[in-house]
Specification:
- 43% of the residues lie in helices and 10% in strands.
- It is mainly α and 167 residues long.
- It has a two-stranded parallel ribbon. The chain has a two-stranded parallel sheet with strand order 3-4.
- The protein is elongated and about 55 Å long.
């Protein structure tokens, strides 16, 4: 699993290291790495995978992004002389993770980074937890919640931290 290397307080509040930590907890047994300076974008990563000998690639994204990534990845498949490098896979699949996304749904159907950030901003830990991967323990969901809030510049008082710790 590759994570983005980007980080900002508004839309991407987890550092690359935090993304690796939380994804490793959510998808136990998976190898999780952040994209690095050697291959900073998805297209660079595709070239890197091609050079490593992979011939088939499957990418998992939210249902609202499947067509976008399918078109992007296939547009450059087999193209030579690209700034990001060359790749030529026998197959490229882009699949939806978590089913069809619904802004009006509940739980995983409504799960998105945007929705989870809104819950974090509002201090709605319960709704945030409902959208977190079910394989994560409550303690790990709490850690993710607090890392997102901290990354967005939301600082909790000592009393709030103590209450969350005993939760």
């Amino acid at each position: 699993i590759l994570t983005t290397g980007s980080y900002d307080a508004k839309k991407n509040p987890l550092t690359p290291q935090q993304k690796v930590k939380h994804l490793s907890r959510a998808v136990k047994g998976s190898k999780v790495e952040p994209m690095g300076k050697d291959a900073p974008t998805l297209l660079h990563q595709m070239s890197k995978l091609h050079k490593a000998g992979y011939t088939h690639v499957t990418m998992h994204v939210g249902s609202d992004r499947v067509n976008e990534f399918h078109n992007l990845l296939n547009r450059y498949n087999g193209s030579e002389g690209m700034k990001h490098g060359h790749y030529n896979f026998k197959s490229i699949k882009v699949k939806s993770v978590g089913g069809e996304r619904s802004d009006t749904g509940e739980g995983l159907a409504a799960a998105s980074g945007t929705a989870m950030r809104k819950h974090a901003i509002a201090g709605d830990k319960e709704s945030f937890h409902k959208m977190a991967p079910s394989g994560m323990s409550k303690a790990h969901k709490n850690a993710l919640y607090h890392d997102v809030r901290k990354g967005m510049g939301i600082h909790e008082s000592f009393i709030e931290r103590f209450k969350n710790w005993i939760d």
